[in-house]
Amino acid sequence: MFKKAKHKVLTVIVAVLSFSILLLGGCSSPSTESNQATQGSSTTQTQAQTKTLFAYVGANLKGPVTELAASYEKEKGVKVELTFNNSGALASQIQTSKKGDIFIPGGTTSIQQGKDNGYIDQVVGPLAYQTPVIITPKDNPAKIATVDDLANPGVKLVIPDKDATAIGKSAYKIFNKIGKTEAIEKNIMASLESPAKVLAAIKMGQGNVGIIEYSNTVKDKEAITVIEIDPKVNAVDQINAASLTYAADKELANDFLQYLQNNGSAVFEKYGFKITKP
């Protein structure tokens, strides 16, 4: 009797426990699936919101490219992160990191070097033209009238670095064209990291003549004298944009290039760049 009663009690306990386990299992599965679905949706949404391009941009192009990146983000919902430096430093960064999507240097020499080294993919442009000009303090103390005068005694010339900057490379092309490179080099007082720094140096009286890009003069024409270089000897260069072979999302990189091609010239012109070849 006692054994039969004990057996019945155990049977009831096992049945109750089994039923409870079934209930718990039945309740937890939909909840888990719901949570997983919610997490999946959240992840997809986050990925869509964080689409990003990374662009290496010449320091002298900061104004127009920043505006173009902001308008592209507003229109397409894609953030374009920008880093600015002279073209030589940017090329070194690209080759060292082997990362990034877009390269917009100040001239075509850096684009060609990128092609030769295998990290340039597609190229669009010209978005504008890089146009070297001569600047002096307002009273033009060295009496500069043409680029040939840069070889005169008493000239203290300040230029952007010839190896690191696009405008520095263009300056040397001009010197070579007129056959006065050696004489002008003797008058170079300083080579600086960017045209903006050359402009600042001339305004502060450090040197009596400089070479910069035309757009750099727009806001300071009251403080300096601007001397345009004869188109026959000037070394005007294109400003192009390129995608990198390291771009993770080729379609997105090419979409931004097309946006620059369609909208770039109008924005560059707002910042004083020439959009037709002088």
Helix content: 40-55%
Give the SSE order as H and E letters.
Answer: HEHEHEHEEEHHEHEEEH
The proportion of residues in beta strands is 15-25%
Quote the distance from N terminus to C terminus.
114 Å
What is the 3D shape? elongated
Low-confidence stretches: 1-5, 14-48
Q: How many E strands?
A: 10
Question: Helix/strand-derived class?
Answer: alpha/beta
- DSSP helical segment count: 8
Strand order of the largest sheet: 2-1-3-10-4
Radius of gyration: 32 Å
- Summed over residues and divided by their number, the pLDDT gives a mean of 88
Largest sheet: 5 strands, mixed
Tell me what the structure shows:
The protein is an alpha/beta fold. 47% of the residues lie in helices and 22% in strands. It has helices at 2-49, 62-76, 87-97, 108-116, 166-178, 181-185, 195-203, 250-270, and strands at residues 52-58, 79-85, 102-104, 120-130, 132-137, 157-160, 188-192, 209-213, 224-228, 237-244. The protein has a five-stranded mixed beta sheet. The chain has a five-stranded mixed beta sheet with strand order 7-6-8-5-9, sandwiched between helices. Strand 1 (52-58), helix 2 (62-76) and strand 2 form a beta-alpha-beta unit. Helix 2 packs across helix 8. The protein is elongated, with a radius of gyration of 32 Å. The N and C termini lie far apart (114 Å). Residues 1-5 and 14-48 have low confidence and may be disordered.
